[in-house]
């Protein structure tokens, strides 16, 4: 394995979508800070590595990223294995997030979805279910051209690559920037 080549590949992808990342992150920070100013809730979902990223984001928001502060409300859907397996068994795996959306989300909440393909059936089902709730905003993070989810989200970062690991590396940078932006903004506003 050529490690330098891999790092160069990462930097090339980052360079290709740098402007898109900056614009996306600012829009996501605006959506998330609005949620918290309105005392609403942020929900996240993803599969596999994207599920791990969703729980990572929740940890940064409920815990802290850089500064001591009040916790910001965020929940990772699918993280409760008893609920996830019950829904999967009774309704099918494609419904695991949609059922939680119906049970938990309220008007003006935000749903943040991660899918490297943008075509995960359970993510699409969650987005479609969230669209039935008034004034819910949807943040998407995907790869390539965004797949089916791109046009269903209010904003969607589409990392121009086909490999999940490269896509997730850019997602991780982006969500850390978003969490930092939310933290800095809300600390200034004493929310």
Walk me through the topology.
Elements: H1 3-16, H2 18-37, E1 42-46, H3 49-63, E2 74-76, H4 81-91, H5 96-104, E3 110-114, H6 121-130, E4 137-143, E5 155-159, H7 164-189
Parallel strand pairs: 1-2, 1-3, 3-4, 4-5
Helix pairs in contact: 2-7, 3-7, 5-6
Question: What does this protein look like?
Answer:
With 191 residues, the protein is α/β, with parallel strands linked by helices. It has a single domain (17-189), classed as Glucose-6-phosphate isomerase like protein, domain 1 (Rossmann fold, 3-Layer(aba) Sandwich), CATH 3.40.50.10490. The protein has seven helices and five strands; from the N terminus they run ααβαβααβαββα. A five-stranded parallel sheet has the order 2-1-3-4-5, with helices on both faces. α3 (49-63) links the parallel β1 (42-46) and β2 (74-76). The radius of gyration is 16 Å and the shape is globular. It starts with a helix and ends with a helix.
Q: What is the CATH class name? A: Alpha Beta
CATH architecture term: 3-Layer(aba) Sandwich
| H-E string | HHEHEHHEHEEH
Q: Report the helical percentage.
A: 40-55%
Instruction: Give the CATH superfamily.
Output: Glucose-6-phosphate isomerase like protein, domain 1
